[in-house]
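Example record

Each entry pairs one chain with its bound ligand, zinc ion.
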Amino acid sequence: MFDYQHQSDWQIISGQEQSPVALDSKTAQSVKWPAPDFATLRGTDSDRSTYTITIAGTGNDVLDGRPATFQQLHFHSQGEHVIDGVRAPLEAHFVHQYADGGLAVVAVPFVVGAANPTFGEVLTAVATGELAYPIKLAALLPKQTDWLHYRGSLTTPPVQEGVAWYVATQPLTVSVQQLAMYQEYFPADNHRALQDLNGRPVLKLESK
Ligand SMILES: [Zn+2]
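Structure tokens for the complex follow.
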């Protein structure tokens, strides 16, 4: 078992393309791409650990022209990526697998604002230990946003590399009560420390 208080002890396979990183949307190279459609994503099964709730699910989307299958969703609080100097209090990670076996993670920062009803369903799953029915996940993903894209790693041991990251520049919101409830369920901070970009290119994917 790993813990976030002793990250220097984590077993690490490789080292130069790690996540999370600080991202700067102003210096990222802009590229047009078709906006992904997350309408089919469903959460079907939940599993609560010390650090987060993981919601396994189904659904397909297309990320950067490549078909991908949604696998699971989990959360980090505080957020892991720093976007234009800002660390969000909550960050959702939608883990995907490409047809060739490679992994992609769609990351969405959440800040305090209006309540998100779908996040309310997630909190209910934490409280009850189960999903009463498949949760439509699209409301946890922004419709109008640019995405920052880079090659990185998983952010929990063994932090394997070769992961395609898509980080939303536009945060969504949860209410102050929802965030407080989440942090009451998961009081231990589970964000990995920032890693060096080591000159990796960062693209800003703008919707056509
Ligand atoms: Zn994660």
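The longest helix spans residues 117-128.
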